[in-house]
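Work Package 4 report. The design task specified in the project plan requires that, given a folded chain encoded as C-alpha cells, an amino acid be chosen for each position. We show below one input record used in the internal validation round.
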C-alpha cells in the first residue's frame, strides 16, 4: 500500500483481471487511461489536485467522502472535463484531439432524472444510436439482458426501483462494449439485495476484461469486488493499493476503542501496560437497575495487538466483555487520518 504515491505505468496489472472471449471487449494494448499531474479547478475551488494514475483491466474502486473530487476525477478520466493542468490519455490518445476514443468509454453518471420518462429500452437504444452502432436494437437487448432487465417491459425509469435505474444506467454504459467503464456511485441508495446484484454485475464486467472505475463514498462498500483502491480526499489521491493494503494501513492508525465490561477498573489495570496503549479512561457502571454498564476507553497505536490480546487480558482481570467498538471508525475520521498523516 502506498500513500500519496501515484500509480504509475509500472504499477502491476490488476490481479484478478481475466480477459473475456475474443471480441468481448475492445482490444487494449497498454493502459486504458493515464492521467499525469492532472488538476482541475473551478474558480477558487480545487476539485482535483495533481493526480497521476494509470488504469488497467479489472475493477478499480475510487473512494472518498462527499466533495472529495471523485465525480470530477471520473469526468476527467472519461475526457468529459478538460484538465486545468496536466494530461489525460485515453487508450493512448488525447480525447480532446481524438474524439473517436469517446466511443470506447461508457459512463454511468451519478445524476438521475434525465431520461425519467423513457423506458430502459428507449434509454439504452438512444445511447446505442448515439455511438453509431450498426444494430442498436440487438445491442440494447443484449445489454439489458446482461444487467437483468426485461427489454419488453415498457414502464418508464421514473416508475422503477433504485436498483433497476442503476442497472439501466449500466446497460446504457456497456451497450457499445467499451473497454473503459466509469460508474459514479452505482450502489448509492440501494437496499442490500439490490446492492449485491449491482456489485456482482460490476465484478463480472471487470473479470471479463473491462477496465472499470467505480466510485463510492462508503468505505468498505467496494472491497469485495475491487482489484485496486484509490482513496481521494480534498482533491488528492491520498492512498492507492489493494483493499487488503488499505485495511492494513487503517489498522495501523491510532484508534480509540470502547470496551464495555462489568469490571472496568480491573480491565483498565490489565490493559495499561499493553504495547501501543497510550491512554485508558474509565467509564464506571451507573447505579441501579437499567443504569449503563461500565466501560473502558482505550487509546491505542496498535489496534491489531489490542484485538488479539483483549480476550486474554479480560480473562486475567475476570472481566466479562459486553462490547468492543472503535469510536473513530466513521468515514470522516478515516479520511481525515489519511489526509493528515
Ligand atoms: N462544475 C462545477 N463548478 C463549480 N464547482 C464544482 C463543479 N464541479 C465540482 N465542483 C466542486 O468541486 C469539488 C469536488 O466535487 P465533486 O463533485 O467532484 O466531488 P465528489 O467527491 O464527487 O462529491 P459527491 O460524492 O458529493 O458528488 C466540490 O467542492 C464541488 O463543489
Amino acid at each position: 500500500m502506498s500513500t500519496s504515491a501515484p500509480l504509475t505505468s509500472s504499477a502491476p496489472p490488476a490481479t484478478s483481471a481475466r480477459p473475456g472471449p475474443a471480441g468481448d471487449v475492445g482490444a487494449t494494448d497498454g493502459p486504458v487511461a493515464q492521467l499525469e499531474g492532472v488538476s482541475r479547478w473551478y474558480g477558487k475551488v480545487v476539485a482535483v489536485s495533481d493526480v497521476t494514475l494509470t488504469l488497467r483491466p479489472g475493477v478499480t474502486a475510487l473512494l472518498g467522502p462527499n466533495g472529495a473530487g471523485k465525480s470530477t476525477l471520473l469526468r476527467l478520466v472519461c475526457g468529459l472535463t478538460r484538465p486545468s493542468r496536466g494530461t489525460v490519455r485515453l487508450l493512448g490518445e488525447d480525447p480532446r484531439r481524438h474524439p473517436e476514443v469517446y466511443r470506447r468509454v461508457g459512463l454511468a453518471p451519478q445524476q438521475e432524472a434525465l431520461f425519467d420518462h423513457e423506458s430502459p429500452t428507449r434509454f439504452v437504444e438512444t445511447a446505442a444510436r448515439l455511438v453509431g452502432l450498426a444494430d442498436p436494437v440487438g445491442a440494447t437487448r443484449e445489454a439489458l439482458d446482461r444487467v437483468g432487465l426485461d427489454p419488453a417491459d415498457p414502464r418508464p425509469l421514473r416508475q422503477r426501483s433504485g436498483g433497476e435505474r442503476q442497472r439501466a444506467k449500466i446497460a446504457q454504459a456497456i451497450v457499445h462494449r467499451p473497454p473503459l467503464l466509469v460508474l459514479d456511485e452505482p450502489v448509492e441508495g440501494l437496499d442490500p439485495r439490490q446492492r449485491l446484484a449491482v456489485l456482482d454485475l460490476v465484478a463480472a464486467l471487470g473479470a471479463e476484461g473491462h477496465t472499470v472505475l467505480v466510485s463510492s463514498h462508503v468505505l468498505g462498500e467496494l472491497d469485495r469486488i475491487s482489484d485496486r483502491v484509490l482513496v481521494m480526499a480534498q482533491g488528492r489521491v491520498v492512498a492507492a493499493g489493494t483493499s487488503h493494503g488499505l485495511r492494513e494501513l487503517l489498522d495501523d492508525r491510532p484508534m480509540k476503542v470502547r470496551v464495555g465490561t462489568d469490571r472496568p477498573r480491573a480491565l483498565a489495570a490489565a490493559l495499561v501496560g499493553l504495547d501501543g496503549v497510550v491512554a485508558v479512561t474509565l467509564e464506571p457502571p451507573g447505579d441501579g437497575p437499567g443504569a449503563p454498564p461500565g466501560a473502558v476507553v482505550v487509546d491505542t497505536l496498535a489496534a491489531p495487538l489490542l484485538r488479539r490480546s483483549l480476550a486474554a487480558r479480560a480473562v486475567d482481570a475476570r472481566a466479562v466483555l459486553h462490547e468492543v467498538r472503535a469510536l473513530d471508525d466513521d468515514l470522516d475520521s478515516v479520511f481525515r487520518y489519511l489526509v493528515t498523516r
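The chain has a mean pLDDT of 84. Validation will be extended to a larger panel in the next phase.
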